[in-house]
C-alpha cells in the first residue's frame, strides 16, 4: 500500500467528466434516448390501502386501437422476490411479485398498459375494470404488531431467503436484537438516566428525474433495458428472475440519471417495461409521474426509544436503543436499514454496555426503502439530541462531552462485530479519525464560544452541534470490479460496473487510475454501468463507490502499470521495477524516457503484439467510518414558531478527498436535503391511507431562498485500507441537520423538539408546553 | 393540455378580445399567463384567446391614480419603481412574494386577481389599498371598487365574456402607511396567512383603516372588527394588539395541507398585528 | 395550426395543436435539454426563456408562443466555445446529476442579461424556481457570481 501522501491527480478538483456535456443539455438521460416506434406505458394503481382484487377485466382496454399490451395478475407469472437492489441472496423478504391479487397501499400496482401515446395509455387504464374486496388497513405502526391487527402479508409464499427473523403473521418484516453487558444494571448504576422517545417522519428523495426505464426487445431475443438506476447488475438479475429467463437474456444500461439518493436502489419499474416490451414486441418507455414518484419509495419513518446512562464526571455508562421502523407495505431494505440504526451510530462513542433492539413492521402505507443515511439518519437524530441533553444534565459543554467520549484511533466497538447488514457484522478497529479536528474547526467556524446574541423582538437565536459517523461499503458482502485497456495514444479505457448517479464517481475512479498510471485524468476514458460490457459492481449504495470500486480500479491500474513497465523496459533497458510512470511517460532510472503512446503503439502493432489490459475485483474487509461534526445557528420566531437556519458548518473527515470539489458537493447536497427534512418535509395521509401532498407544491423542499450560509470544512486523514487514503463522503452529512437543529432550538428557547419535522406549529406547541425534561 | 383546442386567436385590443369571447362562449378559454390553462384538460375548449397582445400591459399615471393593465406580469409589478412608491411598496411586496421567479414572469395581474387561487397574494394588498377594477364586456366597461370586486369570488363577479382590463391604484396624500406580509413555510410556497393594512392618520388619530387577511378563505377579506377598533383611536400598541386580536376572532379559518385551522387563526393575529404596526409606523413617519 | 417562433435565434414554423404543452413540443422538435421533472410547474426542470424571461415550458401552451423567441440551453455554447456560465458551473462543481442544470443555466442567463452585477440575494431570487436535490445550491450560486465576474471583465 502506497505510503506516498502527495499525489498528482488524486486530491485535485479535476473537472467532472460529463460536466460540460450536461451543461450543454446533451441528450444523455433515459427519456432522451427513445427509439422510433417506442410505446408508452402507464400503471394502474390501487385507490385502496388494503384490498383483495376479486375480479379484473382488461378486455376493453386490450381491444383499443393503439394499445399493444395489458398486464395484470391474471396474465403475468407469480414470482416472489424483493425489489430491493441488494446482493443475492437478499436480506429483504421475498414478499412481492409483479402483480399480486392483493393491494397493500394506496398506489400499489394493479395493472399496466403499453400504448402508442401516453394519453392513449392513460385512457386504456380507465377502461380496465377492477373489483375489490376492501380489507381493514393498518395505518399506525404502533398497532401493526398488536394481536388482532389485519395481516398484510397473508400470502403463503412470502418468505425470507437467508435465516433472519420474519413473522408476517404478526406484520413483522424484520427484527434485530443485540446486547452487550447487563443493561438494566448499568442504567440503574448511572448517576443520570435519561429515557426519551423520538419520532421521525416519512420523506421522499424527490430526485428531479422521476424513475424511468426503456425496454427494447432485440432481434436476437434479448431485452435491453436502459434505466435510471443505481443498481444495474441487480436490475439484470431481478428482472431475469421476474421474467423467468436466464440472466444472459437481459442487458441493462445506465445512462446519465437525474439523481437517486436511494430511491433508485430498487427494481421498481424495469420488470414492467420488460414484460410490456416482450408482450408487445416493441420498445416500451415507462416514466413515473411526479405524484407516482412520491409513492415509489420513501424513508423509513421510525419511533426511537433511547435510554442512556451517564455519570456526573461525563463518562457514558449504558445505552439502550429501541427502534420501531415502519417499512410500509413491502419489506425491501427493512432489515438492513434498521441494522444500520445500530451499526452506524452506536460505535461513535465508548459505551461499555449496549443494547439494541428493533422491530420492522408492515403497514398499509407507501413503501420505505433505501434513502441516503439508511437508518443512521433516524438513529443519529435520537442519539445526538440525547447526547446534548446528557451534557447539559451534568453541566458539561456539549462539545467537551463529545470530545471526552468519542471513539479513538485504534479502538473498536463490539457493535461492529455484532451488527452487519442483516446478520453478523465485521469486527474492525478505527484506522483513521479526524473527529477532534472536525469538532474544533467547526466550533471555531460557527463561533461556538461567543455570547449567544438574543435577536430582535420575537426572535431568539441559538447554537447547536452534533457528531456523526457512517461507513464505507459493506465488508465481505459487496464486490466491485474494474477493467482497463490501453489505447495507442496513451489513453486508457476504464470499464467499471460502478454507478455514477450524478455523484461524479466516473471522474473519481478515473483520477484513481490516472494516479497509478501517471497520466492526467482526461486520459482515462470511463465506461460504466453496462452489464454486457463492464465488469460487475453492486452499484451505488452503502457509500461504497470510492472505497470499494476505487480499490478495484487501483488494483487493475497497478496490473496495467506493471505491463507498461515491462514493455517500456524492453524499449529503454533496465529492469521493469526501475521504471517510473509520470506525466504520460515511462522513465528509466538514467533519465531516458518513452511516451506511453510509444509503448502502446509497440504493444498493439509492432513487436510481441498484445493488448495491455487487466481486470481486478475487490471486496472490502472493513467499513471505515467517515466522521463529521456539524454546527448550526438558528433563529426562532417565538410568535409564529418559525425556525430559520442562519448558518451551518459541516466539518468532515472522509480520509483523502479524491476530488475536493465533488466531495464538498456531496456534503452540501446532503446537508440541504437534511435541512428541509428537519424543517418542512412530511407525508400527510388522510384517514384512509392516501397521500394528500403528492406534489412539489405541497411537499416542500428547500429552494435557493431558503438556504442558510453553509461552510464546508474538509479535514483530511489517511485511511490506509482505502485507495489513496479515501473513505466515503456521500451519506454521512444528511444525518446532521435533524439533531443539530433541535439542539440549536434548545439553546435558543430551552425546549426540546423530538418529533420531526420541526414545523412552526410544533415549535409553538413546545414553547407553550415548556420543557419537561425528566432527569433521574 | 387542452386536447380539443384547434386554434389560438390573438386579439389586438380589449374590444376584439371581448367580441371573440362573446362569440365562442364556453368553447373559448382566456390565456394571460396561461399557467392555469396548462393544467386544465377541459375537452369543451376549442378556441384559445391570448390576451397578451392586446395592449393591456401598460402603466399609466394621472393626477388621481395609477392605472395598471391586466396583462402586466407579476414580476413587473414586483420591480417597477413607480409601483414601489405606492402605499410604501405593499403591492410590490405582494407581487414579489408570489411563487418563484418563472411564475412571476408568466402570471399576470389580471390572472392573479381573477383566479384568486394558488399564487394569489396581490389581491390581499389590492383590497387593502382600495384599488379599483375596470371590467370590459360586450356592453362596455364598468368600474368596481375592491370591496365589490372581492365580495365573492371574482369569477362570479365577472359576467359572461367580460374581462378585467385595468386595475386602478389611487394616490394618497398625507400621513398614510401601507404594509403587506406573507407568512409561508418556505420561500416558494402558498401562504399560511397573508395580511395587508393601509392606514391614514389625522394627527395622532386614525382616520381610515383597511385591514385585509388572505390565505384563510377563498377570497381575501376585510377584518371589519379590527378596523373599527383602529378608526378614530390613538394608535397605541395596546390598540393595535386589540385590533389584531379582533381580526383573529373574525377568522373562519380552513385547515389544509399546510396547517390546521387553529394555528392559522393564531397566525392571523400575529401577522395582522405586525402589518398594522408597520403601516402605522410608516404613516407616523410621514406626519 | 401553424405557429411562428424563433428558437435559439432560428426562425421556425411549427405545426402544433395550440393546446399542447410547450415542453412536449420542444422535446418532440429535438430540444432534449428541456426536461420533465413534474409537469405541474413546480420544479423548474422545464425552464426555457421566452423573450428573455425564464418561464416554465410545462405551463405554457403552444399557442402562447406564437411570434415569441424561445431560448434553450442548446444555444448557450458547445464544447469548443462554452458560455462563461457553463464553464463556471463545471469549474465550481455546480453540476452533479445535471438534470436541473439546463434550467439553472437559463435562469442564470436571464438574470445576467438583465443585471450583469447581481449580489447573492439577487442570484437566489432569480433561481428560486429551479429545484435541485443534488448540490444544495451553494455551488450553483457561486458559479453564477463567478460567471458574472468573468463576463464583466
Write a structural description.
The complex is a heterotrimer of chains A (776), B (287) and C (153). Chain A is an alpha+beta fold. Chain A folds into three domains: 19-27 and 479-619, Aldehyde oxidase/xanthine dehydrogenase, molybdopterin binding domain (Aldehyde Oxidoreductase, domain 4, 2-Layer Sandwich); 34-135 and 208-259 and 263-294, Aldehyde Oxidoreductase, domain 3; 301-474 and 622-769, Aldehyde oxidase/xanthine dehydrogenase, molybdopterin binding domain (Aldehyde Oxidoreductase, domain 4). Chain A has 19 helices and 26 strands. In chain A, the strands form six sheets. In chain A, strands 3-5-1-12-9-10-11 form a seven-stranded mixed beta sheet. Chain B has 287 residues and is α+β, with helices and mostly antiparallel strands. Chain B has three domains: 7-53, Uridine Diphospho-n-acetylenolpyruvylglucosamine Reductase, domain 2 (2-Layer Sandwich), CATH 3.30.43; 59-170, Uridine Diphospho-n-acetylenolpyruvylglucosamine Reductase, domain 3 (2-Layer Sandwich), CATH 3.30.465.10; 176-286, 2-Layer Sandwich (Enolase-like, domain 1), CATH 3.30.390.50. Chain B has helices spanning 14-24, 35-38, 74-79, 81-84, 90-96, 101-106, 109-115, 122-128, 146-149, 154-157, 224-230, 237-250, 261-286; strands at residues 7-9, 28-31, 47-50, 59-61, 65-69, 132-137, 140-145, 163-170, 176-183, 193-202, 205-214, 221-222. In chain B, strand 6 and strand 7 form a beta hairpin. Chain C has 153 residues and is α+β, with helices and mostly antiparallel strands. Helix content of chain C is 34%, strand content 15%. In chain C, strand 3 (47-50) and strand 4 (53-56) form a beta hairpin. The longest helix of chain C is centred in the last third of the chain and has 15 residues, at 138-152. The mean pLDDT of chain C is 97.
Amino acid at each position: 500500500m502506497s505510503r506516498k501522501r502527495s499525489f498528482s491527480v488524486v486530491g485535485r478538483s479535476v473537472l467532472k467528466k460529463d460536466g460540460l456535456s450536461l451543461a450543454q443539455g446533451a441528450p444523455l438521460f433515459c427519456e432522451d434516448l427513445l427509439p422510433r416506434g417506442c410505446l408508452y406505458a402507464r400503471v394502474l394503481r390501487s385507490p385502496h390501502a388494503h384490498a383483495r382484487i376479486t375480479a379484473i377485466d382488461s378486455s376493453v382496454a386490450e381491444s383499443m386501437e393503439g394499445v399493444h399490451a395489458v398486464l395484470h395478475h391474471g396474465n403475468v407469472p407469480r414470482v416472489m422476490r424483493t425489489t430491493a437492489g441488494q446482493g443475492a441472496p437478499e436480506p429483504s423478504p421475498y414478499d412481492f411479485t409483479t402483480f399480486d391479487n392483493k393491494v397493500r397501499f394506496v398506489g400499489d400496482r394493479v395493472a399496466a398498459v403499453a400504448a402508442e401515446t401516453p394519453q392513449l395509455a392513460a385512457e386504456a387504464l380507465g377502461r380496465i375494470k377492477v373489483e375489490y374486496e376492501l380489507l381493514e388497513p393498518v395505518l399506525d405502526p404502533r398497532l401493526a404488531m398488536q394481536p388482532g391487527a389485519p395481516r398484510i402479508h397473508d400470502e403463503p409464499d412470502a418468505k425470507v431467503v437467508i435465516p433472519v427473523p420474519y413473522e408476517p403473521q404478526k406484520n413483522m418484516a424484520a427484527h434485530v436484537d443485540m446486547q452487550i453487558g447487563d443493561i438494566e444494571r448499568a442504567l440503574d448504576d448511572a448517576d443520570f438516566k435519561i429515557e426519551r422517545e423520538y419520532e421521525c417522519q416519512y420523506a421522499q428523495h424527490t430526485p428531479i428525474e422521476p424513475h424511468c426505464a426503456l425496454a427494447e426487445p432485440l432481434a436476437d431475443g434479448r431485452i435491453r433495458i436502459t434505466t435510471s438506476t443505481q443498481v444495474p447488475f441487480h436490475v439484470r438479475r431481478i428482472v431475469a428472475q421476474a421474467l423467468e429467463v436466464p440472466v444472459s437474456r437481459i442487458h441493462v444500461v445506465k445512462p446519465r440519471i437525474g439523481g437517486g439518493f436511494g430511491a433508485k436502489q430498487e427494481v421498481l419499474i424495469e420488470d414492467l417495461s420488460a414484460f410490456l416490451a416482450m408482450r408487445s414486441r416493441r420498445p416500451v418507455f415507462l416514466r413515473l409521474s411526479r405524484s407516482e414518484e412520491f409513492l415509489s419509495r420513501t424513508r423509513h419513518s421510525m419511533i426511537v426509544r433511547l435510554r442512556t446512562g451517564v455519570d456526573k464526571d461525563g463518562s457514558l455508562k449504558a445505552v439502550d436503543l429501541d427502534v420501531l421502523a415502519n417499512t410500509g407495505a413491502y419489506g425491501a431494505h427493512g432489515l438492513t436499514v434498521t441494522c444500520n440504526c445500530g451499526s452506524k451510530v452506536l460505535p461513535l462513542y465508548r459505551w461499555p454496555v449496549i443494547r439494541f433492539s428493533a422491530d420492522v413492521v408492515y403497514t398499509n402505507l407507501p413503501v420505505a426503502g433505501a434513502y441516503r443515511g439508511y437508518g443512521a439518519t433516524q438513529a443519529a437524530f435520537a442519539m445526538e439530541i440525547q447526547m446534548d441533553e446528557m451534557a447539559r444534565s451534568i453541566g458539561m459543554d456539549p462539545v467537551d462531552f463529545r470530545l471526552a467520549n468519542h471513539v479513538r484511533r485504534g479502538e473498536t466497538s463490539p457493535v461492529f462485530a455484532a451488527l452487519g447488514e442483516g446478520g453478523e457484522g465485521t469486527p474492525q478497529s478505527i484506522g483513521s479519525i479526524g473527529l477532534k479536528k472536525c469538532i474544533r474547526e467547526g466550533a471555531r467556524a460557527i463561533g461556538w464560544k461567543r455570547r449567544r446574541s438574543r435577536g430582535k423582538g420575537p426572535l431568539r437565536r441559538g447554537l447547536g452541534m452534533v457528531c456523526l459517523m457512517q461507513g464505507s461499503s459493506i465488508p465481505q458482502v459487496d464486490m466491485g470490479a474494474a477493467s482497463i485497456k490501453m489505447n495507442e495514444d496513451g489513453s486508457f479505457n476504464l470499464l467499471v460496473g460502478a454507478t455514477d448517479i450524478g455523484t461524479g464517481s466516473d471522474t473519481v475512479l478515473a483520477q484513481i487510475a490516472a494516479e497509478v498510471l501517471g497520466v492526467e485524468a482526461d486520459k482515462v476514458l470511463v465506461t460504466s454501468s453496462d452489464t454486457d460490457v463492464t465488469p460487475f459492481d453492486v452499484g451505488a449504495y452503502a457509500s461504497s463507490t470510492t472505497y470499494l470500486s476505487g480499490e478495484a480500479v487501483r488494483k487493475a491500474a497497478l496490473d496495467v502499470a506493471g505491463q507498461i513497465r515491462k514493455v517500456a523496459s524492453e524499449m529503454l533497458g533496465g529492469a521493469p521495477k526501475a521504471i517510473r510512470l509520470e506525466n504520460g511517460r515511462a522513465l528509466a532510472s538514467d533519465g531516458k524516457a518513452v511516451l506511453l503512446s510509444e509503448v502502446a503503439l509497440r504493444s498493439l502493432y509492432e513487436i510481441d503484439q498484445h493488448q495491455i489490459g487487466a481486470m481486478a475485483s475487490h471486496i472490502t474487509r472493513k467499513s471505515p467510518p467517515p466522521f463529521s461534526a456539524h454546527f448550526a445557528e438558528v433563529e426562532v420566531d417565538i410568535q409564529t414558531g418559525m425556525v430559520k437556519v442562519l448558518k451551518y458548518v459541516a466539518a468532515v473527515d472522509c480520509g483523502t478527498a479524491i476530488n475536493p470539489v465533488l466531495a464538498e458537493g456531496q456534503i452540501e447536497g446532503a446537508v440541504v436535503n437534511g435541512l428541509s427534512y428537519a424543517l418542512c418535509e412530511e407525508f400527510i395521509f388522510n384517514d384512509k391511507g392516501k397521500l394528500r401532498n403528492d406534489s412539489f407544491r405541497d411537499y416542500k423542499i428547500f429552494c435557493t431562498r431558503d438556504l442558510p450560509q453553509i461552510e464546508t470544512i474538509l479535514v483530511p486523514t489517511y485511511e490506509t485500507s482505502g485507495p489513496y487514503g479515501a473513505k466515503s463522503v456521500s451519506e454521512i452529512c444528511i444525518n446532521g441537520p435533524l439533531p443539530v437543529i433541535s439542539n440549536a432550538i434548545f439553546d435558543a428557547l430551552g425546549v426540546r423538539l423530538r418529533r420531526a419535522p420541526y414545523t412552526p406549529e410544533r415549535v409553538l406547541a413546545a414553547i407553550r408546553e415548556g420543557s419537561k425534561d425528566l432527569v433521574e | 393540455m387542452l386536447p380539443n383546442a384547434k386554434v389560438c386567436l390573438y386579439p389586438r385590443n380589449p374590444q376584439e378580445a371581448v367580441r371573440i369571447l362573446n362569440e365562442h362562449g364556453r368553447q373559448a378559454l382566456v390565456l394571460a399567463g396561461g399557467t392555469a390553462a396548462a393544467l386544465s384538460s377541459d375537452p369543451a375548449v376549442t378556441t384559445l384567446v391570448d390576451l397578451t397582445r392586446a395592449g393591456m400591459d401598460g402603466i399609466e399615471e394621472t393626477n388621481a391614480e395609477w392605472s395598471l393593465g391586466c396583462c402586466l406580469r407579476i414580476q413587473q409589478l414586483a420591480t417597477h419603481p413607480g409601483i414601489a412608491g405606492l402605499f410604501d411598496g405593499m403591492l410590490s411586496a405582494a407581487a414579489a412574494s408570489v411563487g418563484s421567479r418563472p411564475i412571476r414572469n408568466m402570471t399576470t395581474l389580471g390572472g392573479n386577481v381573477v383566479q384568486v387561487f394558488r399564487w394569489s397574494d396581490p389581491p390581499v394588498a389590492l383590497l387593502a389599498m382600495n384599488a379599483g377594477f375596470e371590467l370590459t364586456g360586450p356592453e362596455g366597461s364598468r368600474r368596481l371598487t375592491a370591496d365589490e370586486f372581492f365580495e365573492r369570488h371574482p369569477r362570479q363577479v365577472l359576467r359572461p365574456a367580460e374581462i378585467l382590463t385595468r386595475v386602478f391604484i389611487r394616490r394618497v396624500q398625507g400621513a398614510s402607511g401601507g404594509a403587506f406580509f406573507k407568512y409561508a413555510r418556505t420561500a416558494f410556497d402558498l401562504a399560511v396567512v397573508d395580511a395587508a393594512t393601509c392606514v391614514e392618520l389625522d394627527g395622532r388619530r386614525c382616520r381610515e383603516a383597511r385591514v385585509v387577511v388572505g390565505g384563510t378563505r377563498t377570497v381575501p377579506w376585510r377584518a371589519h372588527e379590527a378596523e373599527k377598533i383602529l378608526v378614530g383611536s390613538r394608535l397605541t400598541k395596546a390598540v393595535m394588539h386589540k385590533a389584531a386580536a379582533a381580526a383573529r376572532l373574525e377568522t373562519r379559518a380552513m385547515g389544509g395541507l399546510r396547517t390546521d385551522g387553529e394555528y392559522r387563526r393564531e397566525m392571523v393575529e400575529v401577522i395582522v398585528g405586525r402589518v398594522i404596526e408597520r403601516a402605522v409606523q410608516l404613516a407616523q413617519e410621514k406626519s | 395550426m401553424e405557429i411562428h417562433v424563433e428558437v435559439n435565434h432560428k426562425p421556425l414554423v411549427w405545426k402544433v395543436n395550440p393546446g399542447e404543452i410547450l415542453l412536449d413540443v420542444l422535446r418532440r422538435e429535438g430540444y432534449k435539454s428541456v426536461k420533465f421533472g413534474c409537469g405541474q410547474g413546480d420544479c423548474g426542470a422545464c425552464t426555457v426563456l421566452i423573450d428573455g424571461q425564464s418561464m416554465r415550458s410545462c405551463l405554457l401552451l403552444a399557442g402562447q408562443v406564437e411570434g415569441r423567441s424561445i431560448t434553450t440551453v442548446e444555444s448557450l455554447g458547445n464544447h469548443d466555445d462554452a458560455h462563461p456560465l457553463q464553464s463556471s458551473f463545471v469549474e465550481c462543481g455546480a453540476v452533479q446529476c445535471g438534470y436541473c442544470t439546463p434550467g439553472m443555466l437559463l435562469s442564470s442567463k436571464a438574470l445576467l442579461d438583465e443585471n450583469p452585477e447581481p449580489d447573492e440575494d439577487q442570484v437566489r431570487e432569480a433561481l428560486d424556481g429551479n429545484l435541485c436535490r443534488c448540490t444544495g445550491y451553494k455551488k450553483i450560486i457561486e458559479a453564477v457570481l463567478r460567471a458574472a465576474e468573468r463576463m464583466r471583465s
